[in-house]
Every structure is written in C-alpha cells, then in structure tokens.
C-alpha cells in the first residue's frame, strides 16, 4: 500500500545514469527491442507500398500524434524553476507547519505565468502574472498558488467562467488576449464592478513586469494558520523580490515582446544559468481570528480587497532562492499541477468563496489536462515524503502496490504503517481547523462585499504622477480598442468612481465628455502614502 516514491527522474535513469531516451548505445522500440533502422518504413520492394505490419512506424507516429496535451484553460503560458526555501524560524508561535521550523530547508518548484494568453503567446502582454510555488515539505506538498497582484476580479468562484470568457479571445476571430482589450472584457468589468480594482492594477505598470525576478507575489485570499497549541490566526501571504519591483514601460513591453516573445522566460532561465539566482522573501500579514474575519473594516474574505501594509506590516518568515532550471519543459513546467487545497498541518483555508471554488476547479481541470487521476505520480508533482493514500488503479498508474486491497480498517494487511508507528495516545495534527459554522443556506452577496471602489482609489492615489500618467495612457489605449461606444462610456463612468482626473483624462483621449467626478486624487487625505499600500516599486 505504501508508495515509497523516489523523486523525479531519479527513478527512471538508465544504466549510464542518464534519463531514458536518446542516451543509450542503440535505438530500441518502446518495449526495448533493438532497432536497426528508424529512417525507412517497411516496404514491399524498393518503392513500396508500406506494410501495415511495420510496428515501429506505427508506434513512432502514434506517439508523436499524442505529444500535445490540452493547455491550461488559464495561465497556459508559463516558465518554471527549481529552488530552495529556507525558514527564518520566527513563525513557530503562530504556525505549526514543519517547514517553518528554524533553519529548515525545503525544495520548491515555481511556475510563473500570464493568465489570458495561450501557450505560445507573448510574455510581455499586459496581464496579471501567476506566481505558483510548490513546497515539497516533509509533511506533504504545500502549494501557494498566487498572483503578482494582491486583489482579484471576482468575489465568488461562480463568476470565474464569466470573467475568463470575457477576457479570452472573442469566438469569431480568436484574436488573442487581454492586451487587445476587446469589447467583451470592457463590457464585463464595467458591468461587474468588483472587477474594477483588479483592472486598475492591470492598467498600472504592475501589468507589465520587467522580469519574473522582479515581481511581488500574493496569496490573494486570507488563509488560516494554526499554531502549535491549536491557536488560529488569519494570514495573507506575500513574496517580496530581493531585486525590488520593476516594470517595463508600455513602449518597452511592445518592443521587447516583438523582438523576443520569450522575453520573461529567457530572462529567468538566463539569470539562473548565469548564477544570478532570483530570491524572494516570504512574508505574512497576521490578523486575529476572532470570528469576524474582518480587519479595520476590511472584509478578509473578500478577495477583491488587500490590507495596506501600513495597517498590518508584513513579517518576513523565510527566503526562497531559485537556482536550477528545469531540464525538460514538458515534464516539469507543463505537467506541474498546483492546487490551493494542497495544504500541510498548520495551514488551512478560510470561507473566502473564491478560494472555496478554486478547491474544486484545479483538481477537475487537471483530471482532463493530465489524463486521469494519477497525476500526482508525475515526477514534478510527487511529494518527497512517503505517500500512503490507499488509492488504486486508474489511467497511468505507475505504482505497483503491494499487499491486500487498500481499505481501512484492515486486519489482513497489518494496517497502516504510519499509524502503527505512533506511540499510544499520539496522533497526527488534523489538516482542518475545527471551525464553527452555521447559517441559512442561500445564494447571497455579503453587504461587506459591496464596496468596489475605495481600494482602487487608495491604490491609485498611492502612485507617483508618472505612474498615474501611465495608467491614464493604458486605459486610453486599451479602451480605445473597444469599438462599442456605450461600453466605453460606462467604463469611463466607473473611472469617475475611482478618480475624477483619471476619468477626465481618459474621456478626453477617447473623445468623450468628462463624467461628473466622484472624487479627485487631491480631495483625499494625504496620510495614506506609498508605504501604507506597501507597493514601492520604481519604474525602470
Ligand atoms: C491556474 C492563480 C482564481 C481556476 C492558475 C495558476 C495560477 C492561478 C497561478 C497557474 C498554475 C500553474 O502555473 O500551473 C489564481 C489566483 C486566483 C485564481 C491567484 C484568485 C485569487 C481562480 C478561480 C478559478 C481558477 C476562481 C476557478 C474557479 C484555475 C484553473 C487553472 C488555474 C482551472 C489551470 C490549472 C491547471 O490546468 O493546472 N490559477 N487563480 N483560478 N486557475 Fe486560478
């Protein structure tokens, strides 16, 4: 029943210590029979016809025909790297996770991505960037599946298909991605106004990072940490790049993307190859888990909201260094399967309705994308600690499980070795926090989710004049691609809710009348400076 999993390619090396294929002295079929010729099909006479009995030909072509797997429905374009996370050891009071013990080192695999574009799209498109980290801890895999923007478009997973359908290419022409800012995107975000804050971050320089190495990462949702005595606290995760946060200008993004569509992918691989290993510190904003899931009026379960760092400072708890490029893009970067529900004891989810829908979505999509239920056996997805899951069979089952049938309780098989190893009275920490819950079953929107603009305003006014200018230009350019006058007008009205000057500038650029401003940047108190947002990021 136990899968003592040797990790990644280790288990599949040939006698020379090389990964299989292309490395042996002679070619073989997939069954290992020697091949004398892989250049000519088996024919009758010199000039054919070809014989159906040519198994090598059919096997070679069959395998080639099936080389492509479905690309991810979102985040299809990505780049990955291996590395190590080292704990600073200062999280022990509030999180019992083993990988946060002092000095503990944990192997990681990170995949950065764009959201909207297809697998072959340009790296420098204006978009959100995914920042997904797999920690191979001694207590199992922990995935922190975040983005480079701390807020999200929607508040309930039910809306995810809507936002993605709006942002993906229009069905008739399949002209790609958010950057082309088609009508459907602006139609959706101007009607579904919780999306306004995320859209503003996208229109800012954050939407065109200089490099994956120079991006922040955010867990976005609020998670729950459980301390050694079982005390819970709420937390927002942050990655802080040691190189600082830098962006491209729009013109740079266009030129770089035109000259080199692999600009970010190449930058990451080249830097690692040159020994300039990118580094991030992992930080947490901690909040008391007092049952309200609210901090200073901010609903912590609303993923369209962030908590300014001036209100809740980020405490740094460890450092990640990426120091090894994947040796095979498909095997590792393409087949890696992240999941926000891959948690370890000491870290749990909350009732954020977006997070809860994600828990279903990733498993479901990976079942199709990775061809069945055994994708956790793919080397890059394998935990590095022993696995004993009692699963059996299914497509692409690589384990040869021993013993009698996997079921519990079980008097024939000797029971579960890990349980048996435990001393009397000893138990494993529970994965789930025993949260009290009650209430009427209904489809509703919390009143505390109804403010769609104040944080967009806070972000906008934290920016320098130059950065605001970039935002005005971005809206003017992108909305200028929207051919529906009513949608353009409605979106400019939304901007007036964020800032009057922003709305007026964009309206002028689009040849519209400036809408009545709700608030101007200058009307707002000045105490909430850049440091309060926690987003100090010079523009290169
Ligand atoms: C993929 C982040 C919301 C569905 C991803 C990836 C990231 C990510 C980083 C790429 C993973 C990789 O590199 O393999 C986020 C964040 C969200 C969010 C930060 C909100 C805060 C959602 C929601 C859903 C969803 C609400 C659906 C209800 C998916 C799917 C994939 C994906 C289906 C493709 C997964 C795969 O094929 O492996 N997301 N996402 N995401 N996300 Fe999300």
From TrEMBL:
Occurrences of domain Catalase core (ranges): 28-416
Basic and acidic residues composition-biased segments: 7-18
Comp. bias intervals (Polar residues): 20-36
Top-level taxon of origin: Bacteria
Disordered: annotated segments: 1-42
UniProt catalytic activity: 2 H2O2 = O2 + 2 H2O
Molecular function terms from GO: catalase activity
EC number(s) recorded for this UniProt protein: 1.11.1.6
Keywords: Heme, Hydrogen peroxide, Iron, Metal-binding, Oxidoreductase, Peroxidase
Cofactor: heme
Family: Belongs to the catalase family. HPII subfamily.
Function statement: Decomposes hydrogen peroxide into water and oxygen; serves to protect cells from the toxic effects of hydrogen peroxide.
The protein, known as: Catalase
Lineage: Bacteria, Bacillati, Actinomycetota, Actinomycetes, Micrococcales
Included stretch of the parent chain: 1 to 540 of 701
